[in-house]
Specification:
Layout: H1 2-62, H2 66-69
Length: 79
Amino acid sequence: MLGYLTGGLAAVSLASCVYAGVLRGDRDALQRDLAALHLQLSACGGRLQTVLDDKGSDHAVDQMPDTDLVDVPDHWLRP
């Protein structure tokens, strides 16, 4: 009877160790996914800032009076 109890406890402890290893692997994978998502989010923020800066410069050009647009330096013209 004691042999069965010892064997059962050994099986339970082995199963617990295997399950803990699986959970540790899952946790590591989730941490890598989280780091990748943080990088994607920061890249998205950078792209958003670029779009906002571009819209600001477009607005500055749109606000120029038409009289300033015809005053082109000679070196910009093609021969």
